[in-house]
Write a structure and sequence with these properties.
Residues 566-688 form the Helicase XPB/Ssl2 N-terminal domain. Keywords: ATP-binding, Helicase, Hydrolase, Nucleotide-binding. One of its GO terms (molecular function) is helicase activity. It comes from Streptomyces thermospinosisporus. This is Helicase-associated domain-containing protein. By secondary structure, the protein is α+β, with helices and mostly antiparallel strands. The protein is 42% helix and 14% strand. The protein contains 33 helices and 30 strands. The strands form 9 sheets. The chain has a 7-stranded antiparallel beta sheet with strand order 25-24-30-26-27-28-29, with helices on both faces. Helix 20 packs antiparallel against helix 25 and helix 22 (437-447) crosses helix 23. It is elongated. It starts with 11 loop residues before the first helix and ends with a strand. The model is unreliable at 1-5, 453-473, 515-534 and 773-786 (pLDDT under 50).
Length: 864
């Protein structure tokens, strides 16, 4: 049962002054903007808690029922009793669910300093009342209009008396008593029922259309009889020429006393779409996690020698994004997701050069050497905490500019909270249960109804199509939630739509409840009751690091062990039945071309791929030994012949820089080149029987000869064969992008403890009774006026020296070096050299003050 306060506070500051430290800590934790900077006392804290920006931020973080409670208080009398509030929420007939949930909702409003006072005098903070109260410009969310008193404020006294006569009430001597009598009639259920019983049916239909809002309607200069009947009796009141409104008291009678059509005291349940065995979910998620690692590695390998150029406005061009999508064999929205994920993890960045382009960072080399599970945990953590939203790529911002991958304008501060909360809701289901997506979205909208109204300024919908904000009707948080469900599946946090064990650990969720069923595959959509879930907000950095490490430990046994072998086949292909050890994968990537990927990767050997390995410094003997060592099957004869044939021809031709030249000991081969029509564009001419000169550069000459079917090798100025190894281009050291915070961060326990101690000390200093120093230096003259004390330098010094001897505390006025004035309560310890060292009760520490900056001193009242 709700408890009444023993002593009713007269202001929010007094209500805060009556709280204990735990309650103040809960307030500052839920509204961290109040502690930035730390208020000097509780009066300043209350003032800051009532500012418009802070109240709007607090209202946005209320759930549906707590917000409905605040909306009901905004249309209730000020102050209101708990019984009046319960009547507005539950109606005349009552609602057990509302009655059970209302104390908690009211407690939430009190905790966040949006409501203060006891149950007999509940007051909504004035700013919140102004935001939620009905007005013609801003209709109330309840659909209620102004009260009779507000609607008749500009009405003539004669017209008010005519309304009294029409409803059968005696006339009064003034408008105030007339409005009071009309209000009393409209709030009396029995008398109102009798009045409406005689109303024409058409008039009642008009009331039915206005009862749930909006309460305003239009009338002509000569209203119809059904409207005239209502206007004569004050059931509709004019607010402007041609506009009438349904008074709040009349609407509440027609609603049965309820402020809302549908109170929502209980959050909608997250429904189960399918149930799988937890082992199947974990295996599917682990397989996708491995695929995610392979995809990111493939992306970075594609950009290893320098990626696409940076647009002038920042980001990837549409053409480069398409090229990346083709290279990864994924749709463009998915390619944007992988690119943004690598960027958020600090693996790619722009190099900052004049012809700026994207490339891998030095952190990528460190990341590649980590165990697979730890590499995945880094990616998953970066995604979970990033404020950049890849789903917005392809849309347009508020200024109608295109949003590009890696470009500006993709940060949305709500993204980490939404991602965490979506996964937390999945964690509340039994292990292996996949949710109905729409039920997850409905739950999120209940938890943050006002935040759901934010617009992102464009983006893409969950199917990858462009969304400018008006085609789907989804708000920003809903779209981020949809993207979260699909991105979590891509990343391997979920498997088959259900949260995996390592995904549960990633968000710090408790152990899952026992599964309700064991079927494999789709099942009936059964509602699942709400279960405790992880905190609504993301974990602090230290806790998130521990959760990520725990997720990596759970994932590690699920990932396949890297293999040290492949299966060579007679059709010049090699099959890798699983992930390969890094040296084997790197060498095979040079010696062969990837033909297909999946559970097993197929590599194909071609003359070009073998020549690439020879160019990298390998010999035919090295390649034969490598294949014999790492193949579980005998090396096929066609592959041996291919390597020997390419190696035999490799390096017969030598290309160097003259502009370029071709050197060969076999003059017949040079004759063949000169006779080939395809060599016409190379500008070749014979300088000697074994040397041809070219008008093109060596690189173009190499490519031209290879296109003609030859296998030339480049040579240095000294005549040695140049070995062309893979060149890994790296940016200078770059840190991962910092998430864009959504307001001040939640303070930790240490900061809260220090802040509350400082606020308490400052409040004691500002409220402690004191008396002014008399001109003769003796304490007397009554209490201060509330301003800074004013005494001469001699009086100040004498009071300080006396306080050192007696150990008494003094009230001082102090002006710092910036000219800011403040008042403090200090206990002087030592006075020397023009400084006073004292224990400052306001700051709760020992400080030293220059005497010339003290405006004056006053003694504290004797009873303190």
């Amino acid at each position: 049962m709700p408890a009444s306060s023993a002593a009713a506070p007269r202001s929010l500051a007094e209500a805060l002054r009556g709280r204990d430290d735990a309650s103040l800590a809960a307030l500052l934790r839920s509204r961290p903007d109040l502690i930035t900077p730390v208020p000097t006392d509780l009066t300043q804290l209350a003032t800051r808690a009532g500012t418009r920006a802070s109240v709007v931020r607090a209202l946005e973080r209320l759930d549906r029922f707590a917000l409905q409670t605040a909306e009901a208080l905004a249309v209730a009398p000020d102050p209101a009793t708990y019984e009046e509030l319960l009547g507005l929420m539950a109606g005349d007939e009552g609602d057990p669910a509302v009655a059970a949930a209302l104390p908690h909702a009211l407690g939430t409003l009190r905790e966040q300093a949006l409501v203060w006072g006891g149950d007999d005098r509940l007051r909504l903070v004035r700013t919140a009342r102004e935001l939620l109260s009905p007005s013609p410009q801003h209709p109330s969310p309840t659909g209620l209009g102004p009260t009779v008193q507000e609607a008749t404020a500009g009405m003539s006294p004669g017209r008010i008396q005519e309304i009294l006569a029409a409803v059968g009430l005696p006339s009064t001597h003034d408008s105030v008593s007339a409005v009071a009598a009309l209000t009393e009639l409209f709030t009396d259920r029995r008398r109102m029922a009798a009045l409406l019983a005689g109303a024409p049916a058409e008039s009642l239909q008009v009331l039915e259309r206005l009862v749930w809002g909006p309460p305003y309607g239009q009338v002509t200069a000569d209203p119809a009889p059904r409207l005239r009947w209502l206007l004569d009796r004050g059931l509709l009141l004019p607010t402007a020429p041609g506009t009438v409104v349904l008074p709040r008291e009349v609407a509440l009678h027609l609603r049965g006393g309820r402020a809302h059509r549908t109170p929502e005291p209980v959050p909608p349940p997250v429904e189960t779409a399918a149930a799988h065995r937890p082992q199947v979910v974990d295996a599917a998620a682990a397989a996708q996690a491995y695929t995610a690692l392979a995809t990111v590695e493939e992306l970075l390998k594609d950009w290893d020698e320098g990626g696409p150029s940076v647009l002038r406005a920042g980001g990837l061009s549409v053409r480069d994004l398409k090229r990346t999508a083709v290279a990864l064999d994924v749709p463009e929205p998915v390619a944007a997701f992988w690119v943004e994920l690598a960027y958020a993890a600090g693996l790619i960045a722009s190099d900052g050069e004049a012809d700026e382009r994207y490339a891998a960072t030095p952190a990528y080399d460190e990341w590649r050497e980590q165990p697979a599970a730890e590499r995945w945990a880094r990616l998953a953590t970066a995604w979970l905490t990033a404020t950049r939203v890849s789903g917005l790529v392809g849309g347009r911002d508020a200024k109608d500019r295109a949003l590009s991958a890696l470009g500006p304008g993709l940060d949305r501060s709500a993204a980490p909270e939404v991602r965490h909360r979506v996964l937390a809701l999945l964690a509340g289901l039994p292990a292996g249960a996949a949710p109905v997506p729409e039920s997850v979205l409905a739950r999120l909208h209940w938890e943050r109804p006002l935040r759901g109204g934010q617009n992102s300024g464009g983006g893409q919908n969950s199917r990858g199509g462009q969304n400018t904000g008006g085609d789907t009707g989804d708000d920003l948080r809903t779209r981020i939630a949809r993207w979260t469900l699909s991105e979590a599946e891509l990343l391997g946090i979920t498997g088959r739509g259900a949260l995996s064990a390592h995904g549960r650990a990633l968000i710090g969720a408790p152990a899952p409840p026992e599964p309700e069923a064991e079927p494999e595959g789709p099942g009936d959509k059964l509602p699942v009751h709400h279960r405790p879930a992880p905190p609504l907000t993301p974990l602090p950095p230290a806790e998130q690091a521990a959760a990520s490490a725990a997720a990596a430990r759970l994932l590690a046994p699920q990932l396949p062990e890297p293999l040290d072998h492949v299966l060579l086949q007679a059709d010049l292909t090699a099959v890798a039945p699983g992930p390969l050890q890094r040296p084997l994968a790197d060498m095979l990537g040079v010696l062969a071309d990837v033909e297909s990927k999946g559970g097993a990767t197929v590599y194909r050997f071609t003359p070009g791929s073998v020549r690439r390995a020879l160019d990298a410094g390998q010999t035919a003997a090295d390649l034969h030994a490598f294949l014999a060592e790492h193949s579980r099957t005998p090396v096929p004869q066609p592959l041996t012949y291919l390597i020997d044939d390419v190696a035999r021809r490799h390096g017969q031709l030598r290309v160097g820089a003259a502009s370029a030249y071709v050197r060969c000991d076999d003059d017949a081969m040079l004759n063949e080149i000169l006779a080939d029509r395809r060599a016409a564009g190379l500008g070749l001419r014979r300088l000697a029987p074994t040397v041809l000169a070219a008008q093109t550069d060596p690189a173009a000459l190499l490519e031209g000869l290879r296109a003609m079917g030859f296998a030339p090798a480049a040579e240095s100025a000294e005549g040695d064969v140049l070995i062309s190894r893979a060149h890994a281009y790296r940016t200078p050291p770059r840190s991962a992008p910092e998430p864009v915070p959504e307001g001040p961060p939640v303070p930790d326990d240490t900061l809260l403890t220090a802040a509350i101690r400082a606020i308490r000390a400052g409040d004691r200093a500002s409220t402690t009774p004191r008396k002014q120093i008399a001109p003769d230096g003796s304490g007397g003259g009554g209490s201060g006026s509330g301003g800074l004390p004013r005494t001469t330098a001699a009086e100040t010094l004498a009071a300080m020296q006396a306080a050192v001897l007696t150990g008494e505390a003094l009230w001082i006025g102090y002006v710092n070096a910036e000219g800011a004035a403040s008042q403090r309560v200090i206990a002087p310890i030592r006075v020397e050299g023009g400084f006073v060292t004292a224990y400052d009760h306001t700051a709760d520490e020992v400080r030293t003050y220059p005497l010339h900056r003290i405006t004056g001193v006053a003694e504290l009242a004797e009873d303190d």
